[in-house]
Amino acid sequence: MNIESQHRFQAISLGFLAGYVNTLGFVALFGLMTALVTGNFILIGASLVSDSSSGVLIKFLAFPAFIVGIAAIRIITIWLDSRHQQNLQIQLTVLLQLVLLVAFMVTGLYASPIGKEQTTAAIICGMFGAAAMGAHSAYTRLLLPHLAPTSMMTGNVTQIVLDAMELILGKADTATKVRISKALWTISAFAIGAIVAGFCYVAVSFWALLVPIAILIWLLRQEHYCNTDAQQV
Hints:
- This protein is an all-alpha fold and 233 residues long.
- 78% of the residues lie in helices and 0% in strands.
- The chain is built from eight helices and no strands.
- Helix 2 (37-48) packs antiparallel against helix 3 (56-82).
- The protein is globular.
- The two termini are 16 Å apart.
């Protein structure tokens, strides 16, 4: 797989994963946004002035959990930098996301069926989901800067519209066309993941998280082979 194909595969895989996990959390856990945690503040505000305040606590706690996921990724990268093992950064950060997503699935299955009231198990489940997506956001920003952001689509949509206008007006250069291509793959994958997740959750509950777990296992396997090839060169 050449570099361009590898980057496209990463964008599609991670964009799909982010849309999928965020939608599954929203459907399963009182409208919780695991990847777009600042959006939870809007939902909290709406809940506090409505007849039902269901889901407020889990949305509050998702924010510190998201921060913990980000901090954990940064600690891993700094530690590996100090040991001059930068080649292991992607593997260990993907592994952390994998562990957190498995914990998200297991606690979700334990908490099921999830009713209208928050239980301790459901709250812990939501925190694992938010931590996993915090780790996802930090991993892509720190270690995959060649990709468009895979979990924050508002910025991608803004950039692609600006770049499209440059293209229409005849002012686009090669870099503009590259940005459009990168953002299109990511946005499309995110949207497809978001749609698929809702149907999968309805069909098989938290077992649906086996899909993003499989994606991370595949990415981990690919990174392992890349490291092995690099060492042999």
